[in-house]
Amino acid sequence: MCELKRALDAKGNSVLEMPTGTGKTVTLFSLITSYQWAHPELGRLVYCTRTVPEMSKAVEELRKVIDFRVEVLAKELDAGSEAPKGLAAGHILAVGLSARRNMCVHPEVSKEGDRERVDEMCRQLTAPWTREKKTASCVHFEKYESALGQQSQLLDTGIYTIEDLRVKGMDKEYGWCPYYAARRLIQASSVVVLNYQYVLDPKVSLASSLGGAPSLPGGKMRAGGLSSIEPSIVVFDEAHNIDDVCIESLSVKLNRQRLDQSSGNLTRLGNEIERVKKEDASRLQEEYKRLVQGLRQAGQIDEAMADQLQSPVLPEDLVSEAIPGNIRRAEHFIALLRRIVNFCRRYLHVERAQCEGPLSICHKLEEDAEVDSKSLKFCHERLRSLLNTLQVSNLEEFTPITKVADFVTLLGTYSQGFTIIVDPYPEAQGIYDPTLILRCLDASIAIRPVLKRYQSVVLTSGTISPLEMYPKILGMSNVVATESFSITMERKCLCPLIVTHGPDQVPISSRFSLREDPSVVQNYGSLLEQLVQTVPDGLVLPAAGHRHGLYINLVLSRSVCFFTSYRYLEQVLEKWYETGVISRVLKHKLLFIETADVVATTYALNLYRQACDSGQGAVFLSVARGKVAEGIDFDRHYGRCVVLFGVPFQYTLSRELRARLEFLRQHYDIKESEFLNFDAMRQASQCLGRVIRSKRDYGVMIFADQRYARSDKRSKIPDWIRHFLEPGHVFMASDLAVEAAGNFLLQMSQPFEEKTGVGASVLTPQALQELQAEGSKASDSKEMEKSAIFAPPLKRLKLNLSTPPDPPSSNLDAVSKQIW
User: Biased composition, Polar residues: where in the chain (predicted)?
Assistant: First the structure.
């Protein structure tokens, strides 16, 4: 990982593509934690994943790395010396953080399956005003508060997954709330593993508490807004869709139903304000005084509740301004929001779709609703302050008016990088349901605070080609390393095939002009039929009493097929059913289909795995950009062949996509075709990468569309896949592709003994030491030759070189030595 170390040395950013299943996570943890050990002044590592299972896997890999480091350091101690403990022995504190639903241990709250319901019940038990009245409380939260009051460190050094923290929360010795403990332990942790949203989404962002050097959990948490770059490292794993995550985090949708609910929220807040005026008017007066002092002070009314209502990304100069006078009074602010809601209702009365910029909408708001554009910037923070003052625990009830506040806050803050779209028929099904969409077009807005705040940001994925596109669309500067690493295998474990036509020489493609062509659908069906009969799962079966012979167990194939969209999947399945393709496939194996329903898809996946485990075999039909394509692995016998029917382009007539393409063309000089090809190929690579999850795995990857043979598509396939693409496998007929797949899987099913020692694909510790010894001998011999021939010039050259870094001390772990 020389490229990553080069980026860390230069305090810059990097974009790295590493093949899936080759130890990417272990490599990142090994190098960065060793770099932290060698540079104590370095801050924490923030490791971002997409899902809870990925988070748990990452923490387990980190535990293996640190355990190995502690073991190596213990062996290097001098005989008779006292063994160090804690951080000196190589241990670190690392925690995983997820939502309340995944971490809660309260006997009643944890039974709820709905995320919003869990959040609501938790707030009702932990809100300061609820605890003061002593009407209800959470014993785990009370123990957490008690531990903080005693300046407790909560936990000793160690690696703690979400499940580990839950176990501690249910333990009588600890008993504190795992969720709040994890949020506080972030301050003392050297490594934090959490979801993307906690870093990118401003509504749930923890960016203010992730930077800086580790500090004791019992200390006071520091507020955000640091001006200098902090010496911490942020890693975004599986970052191939990070631009989409950034855009979604700053986009807001409103419809008539949500606006009607917002009006109800405002009525409820108005009544609550009148009640508080009569019972405790001092609360509103104190809030008014804080608002006069400025936005930053107003946002810190209650730290626990403020965590739940983080504001959208605001410029640094804005947070020091005072709240405008026309919204300081609670009743005045409610009246302003009511005018905004009524304006949005009138704005939605359209028969044709229209698109405008933020400045145009702000001008209409000023004219029609008499709303000053400056006041819009503070709406979210002002609403947060009001909800805290009114002591509202059930924040989910006020989600509609919060969305309206988000909408106008972003509208008033940014004049570029956003567009407003009104679509009277958003679902294209002939149903009139006008939707008001504030769409973020510039992904760099959400990630910009992260790039400015932290010393190094690393984007990595197995399918992140082409690498040069990401720094451009994310506004990443100081990019030191952009590298796509290949994969070393002892035998050819991948067989990518590009199928361009059927046996009848008719081109196959999912392009719109050929989508309804019966011959294309027939060729796709013929390809699937032949694959289910040909793809074997090779096994070496030793026979009792005989020498190990060659045996091929031709069980039914385990294939995964991806379509470009749900609509295209339905169209093809309908034609296949009419022509008998489905019935012929079902004679050989079971058929499972992904749907838009998450529960039904999860159930189908479980049945698919059971069919594969039983030896019956199955085919899973899925959709690119769906749940299966992004987060489900088909390793080993669960997926020996993956077929991608068509090129997964986005719907090019989408108004949101058209607006973003125009923005990219004007501001980044990215052509429409360039971005569409880039987006389609990263989705295609992600689908195909599902079948290979380790170095010992193998599988067939079939690109079933003639457009994949073109250089503009083929060049965007990740290098580690393209490396195995043979020239004769580029323009193939479907029958020849099936034959090539059968030959490949037949070859992979033969007995194979892995190499050991130097030259093996997977090195043992002993082989690694031999390899290092050979490398040091070779470098020493080269240095001796150079010194004998070029001694005077070399000596003069060394005088001009900058002083090299000091070698690592003897107590560095083996992984750190490898770096040096």
Answer: 809-820
**Measuring CA to CA, which residue among 337, 318, 315, 311 is closest to residue 326?**
337
Q: Give the global pTM.
A: 0.82
Residue 15 · residue 464 · CB < 8 Å: yes
Three-state secondary-structure class, residue 731: coil
> CB neighbours (10 Å) of residue 39?
12
Q: Is the pLDDT of residue 432 over 50?
A: yes
- Cis (ω within 30 of 0) for the bond into 128? no
Handedness of CA 708, 711, 713, 715 (dihedral sign): positive
The answer, yes or no, to whether residue 117 has pLDDT greater than 90, is: no
- Phi and psi at residue 118, to the nearest 5°: -65, -45
Tokens read off for 77: 């101690």
The span from the CA of 552 to the CA of 18, in Å, is 33
Are 748 and 754 a contacting pair, CB within 8 Å? no
Residue 294 CA to residue 318 CA, distance in Å, equals 10
| Per-residue CA distances from 184 to 105, 172, 594 (Å) | 17, 20, 40
3-class secondary-structure state, position 15: strand
The 3-class secondary structure across 128-192, one letter per residue, is HHHHHHCCCCCHHHHHHHHHHHCCCCCCCCEEECHHHHHHHHHCCCCCCCHHHHHHHHHHHCCEE
Q: What are phi and psi of 358, to 5 degrees?
A: -60, -40
- Contact call for residues 531 and 621 (beta carbons, < 8 A): no
For residue 525, pLDDT beyond 70:
yes
Nearest 10 degrees: Cα torsion 102, 106, 112, 117: -90
The C-alpha atoms of residue 310 and residue 103 are separated, in whole angstroms, by 21
Tell me the pLDDT tens digit for each residue of 533-585.
876 432 222 223 333 332 222 333 457 787 888 888 888 999 999 999 999 98
332-338 long-range contacts, CB within 8 A, separation 24+: 333/382, 333/383, 333/386, 334/266, 334/269, 334/270, 334/273, 336/371, 336/375, 336/379, 337/262, 337/266, 337/379, 337/383, 337/401, 337/404, 337/405, 338/263, 338/266
Mention every residue, 6+ apart, whose C-beta is less than 8 A from residue 159. 59, 62, 63, 66, 92, 94
Q: Which amino acid would we find at residue 97?
A: L
Q: What whole-number distance in Å separates Cα of residue 550 and Cα of residue 265?
A: 73
CA atoms within 13 A on the CB side of 775: 8
**pLDDT, average across residues 638-659:** 88
- Packed helices 791-800 and 765-789: angle between N→C axes, nearest 10 degrees: 110
189, 233, 793 from 186: Cα distances, Å: 5, 14, 52
Nearest C-alpha neighbor of 523 from the set 737, 777, 365, 267? 737
CA distance 203 to 198: 9
pLDDT per position as a tens digit, 50-71: 888 889 889 999 999 999 998 8
Q: Roughly what angle, to the nearest 10 degrees, separates helices 444-453 and 242-249?
A: 100
Q: Report the distance separating Cα 363 and Cα 640, nearest Å.
A: 58
